């Protein structure tokens, strides 16, 4: 097999070959590194190469297999890790110049779990300053570019992860999501992801000096961005393995009990007053048709109020950020990120004092409404954004820019606030005047049922095809 034949393989395909001996871990990792070294100079998705360590680890995996040691479920799969998560011996910069020498003393749970499963880390991916933009640029590493073209932002904050994996830099890309940071890059680049629900993936950074705020703890989750939905079924069971350093992790299996069919899906095009672009509407219709053809019962019905939930949740999060992070942003952030946060605080006026505590308490009200709704409708098909993905630096263009980037993204951060799983999958490639770009939809699932969301994403992908196939025709 040539390098191209190898780096284009999905994680599922790699594992099938490394386990039966048709491909060595070293070959899989070498092909991914060569791809990274070829294309990353134009993307700037990976900002810290782990190539030397990766090749050494791959050779160790091959020796262990030859000696009869059982292979892990991700044996030889090349992966990337976002630079805001600890990987022993590497800097956890979070895109901030002042943190460029913050070397991690140990691996975070997600890194440990991936490596325990046999995955090999080939590089660390870019994020905006403090991982708090839906675009990816910072003074430490510079801008990440979308492989579809520079007319589209790569998304954020896991923008390096999304751009890299879609361009063939590794088969799996780690990311995290407090308001959309897995799903924004998936939507921008045409990748697939599932934002896990609260408590599903163990999380903690050994380098951190203080504990995170309560909303950061309850809204932020760790996950993976992939090129195909089946790779989520392959890899997420390893990611959710318990780690005692996260005392609130819930050790449930990846697959839940089968539901009596047909599974009911609530379907909505409601964008709460924001204009629904025809291409987004077409993507939603395609996703609905795919699910119907796959045997789901899809009913057009309104779920609980996403706008009120999302705006309340993000205003509460901004209240926590104002209280716990603003001093660091002012001290260590660039003028660009300080200006963006100033507009965030206008778009989402922070709750403070007693009102912040009251709105944090109200979180259970919204979560209860969704819990009751998903008893009848275990899945909910929604827009992700009402418009095609925005251009780079749109969030630097004042109130109008931030409103387009985050203000209208209520379907995104509402799911963080209530802690529900939400998959994001491409269902259309739009031909727009500024150039082609994928359009993703969102699939919300009942609590603890990430597997159902990924099953639905798989059904949509079966109708549409893998977006990476269309992308690679343009890149190569």
TrEMBL record:
<protein>
    <submittedName>
        <fullName>Amidase</fullName>
    </submittedName>
</protein>
<dbReference type="Pfam" id="PF01425">
    <property type="entry name" value="Amidase"/>
</dbReference>
<dbReference type="InterPro" id="IPR023631">
    <property type="entry name" value="Amidase_dom"/>
</dbReference>
<keyword id="KW-0378">Hydrolase</keyword>
<feature type="domain" description="Amidase">
    <location>
        <begin position="27"/>
        <end position="451"/>
    </location>
</feature>
<dbReference type="GO" id="GO:0016787">
    <property type="term" value="F:hydrolase activity"/>
</dbReference>
<dbReference type="InterPro" id="IPR036928">
    <property type="entry name" value="AS_sf"/>
</dbReference>
């Amino acid at each position: 097999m040539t390098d191209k034949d190898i780096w284009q393989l999905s994680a599922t395909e790699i594992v099938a070959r490394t386990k039966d001996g048709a491909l060595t871990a070293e070959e899989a990792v070498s092909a991914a590194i060569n791809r990274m070294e070829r294309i990353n100079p134009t993307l700037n998705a990976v900002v810290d190469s782990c190539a030397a360590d990766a090749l050494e680890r791959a050779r160790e995996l091959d020796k262990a297999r030859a000696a009869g040691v059982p292979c892990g479920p991700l044996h030889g799969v090349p992966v990337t890790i976002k630079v805001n998560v600890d990987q022993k011996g590497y800097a956890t910069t979070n895109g901030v110049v002042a943190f460029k020498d913050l070397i991690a003393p140990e691996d975070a749970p997600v890194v440990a779990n991936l490596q325990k499963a046999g995955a090999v880390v080939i590089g660390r991916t870019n994020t905006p300053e403090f991982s708090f933009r839906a675009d990816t640029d910072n003074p430490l590493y510079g801008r990440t570019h979308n492989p579809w073209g520079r007319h589209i932002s790569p998304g954020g904050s896991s923008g390096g992860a999304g751009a890299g994996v879609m361009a063939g830099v590794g088969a799996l890309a780690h990311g995290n999501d407090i308001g959309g940071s897995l799903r924004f890059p998936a939507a921008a680049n045409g990748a697939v992801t599932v934002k896990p629900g609260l408590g599903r993936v163990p999380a903690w950074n050994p380098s951190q000096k203080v504990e995170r705020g309560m909303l950061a703890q309850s809204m932020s989750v760790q996950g993976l961005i992939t090129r195909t939905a089946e790779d989520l079924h392959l890899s997420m069971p390893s990611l959710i393995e318990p780690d005692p350093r996260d005392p609130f992790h819930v050790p449930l299996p990846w697959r839940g009990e089968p539901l009596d069919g047909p599974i009911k899906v609530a379907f909505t095009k409601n964008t709460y007053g924001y204009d629904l672009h025809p291409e987004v509407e077409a993507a939603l219709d395609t996703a609905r048709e795919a699910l119907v053809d796959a045997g789901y019962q899809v009913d057009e019905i309104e779920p609980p109020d996403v706008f009120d939930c999302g705006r309340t949740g993000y205003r509460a999060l901004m209240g926590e950020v104002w209280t716990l992070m603003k001093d660091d942003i002012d001290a260590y952030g660039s003028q660009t990120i300080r200006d963006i946060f100033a507009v965030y605080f206008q778009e989402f006026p922070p709750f403070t004092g007693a009102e912040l505590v009251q709105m944090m308490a109200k979180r259970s009200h919204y979560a209860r409404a969704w819990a009751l709704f998903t008893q009848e409708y275990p899945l909910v098909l929604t827009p992700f954004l009402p418009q095609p993905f925005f251009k780079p630096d749109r969030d630097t263009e004042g109130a109008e820019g931030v409103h387009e980037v985050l203000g209208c993204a209520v379907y995104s951060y509402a799911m963080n606030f209530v802690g529900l799983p939400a998959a994001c999958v491409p269902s259309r490639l739009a031909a727009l005047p500024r150039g082609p770009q994928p359009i993703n939809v969102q699939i919300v699932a009942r609590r603890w049922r990430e597997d159902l969301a990924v099953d639905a994403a798989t059904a949509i992908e079966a109708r549409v095809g893998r977006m990476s196939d269309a992308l690679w025709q343009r890149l190569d």
